[in-house]
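Question (not urgent): is this output format expected?
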Amino acid sequence: MLRDAALVAGKDLRIEARSRVASNQVAPFAVLVLLLFAFALDPDRGVLARTAPGLFWVAVLFSGLLAVQRSFSLESADNARDGLRLSGLDPAGIFLGKAGAIVVQMLALEVILAGFVTLMYGRHLHGPAILIITCVAATAGMAASGTLYGVLAAGLRVRETLLPLLLLPVVAPVLLAATRASESALDGAGSEAWPWVRLLGVFAVIYVTFGILAFGPLLEEA
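Got this back:
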């Protein structure tokens, strides 16, 4: 399973490295979202600084939707999805590989956005260890749920609009917990952040486990 996951993740990441969709489209979109928030809230810098964690994770969520859609659009041309089903790869490995590739892309994006928030929003990155763990756990949960619902919507003509409707209610708890953990870490209240970090870990484990079990049947139905 892990070998198959490495093969699928390597394939997706090589395609992204050659096409540069993530760097040329997704990353500028996320930065533009944060820039628009900065313009909208600029008259009150205090509000902008206080809401920085929530705005950061909203930008990550929107960009994650694009990354999930991109991940499954790679398999839509020339019946590549049928080839994936007939490849003999472990469905759980395919799930972990595609989710892992999304995690790598989103973490790279979060590094860029964190620097942008520091410069534009005037927030200093206190509690780096908590912030790193928060980003990893929240990104794993988003990527796992996005991969699961991405394959569910992949075979439908309205997948571009259906995927956000399916995914947003599921990742809302992850978004809330990540925002609260980030706020506490940035405010120097590490003891208040750890319960939210543990909650993120629970969500990540649940979504990854459910994805490993359900991805195969969903891939066949798609």
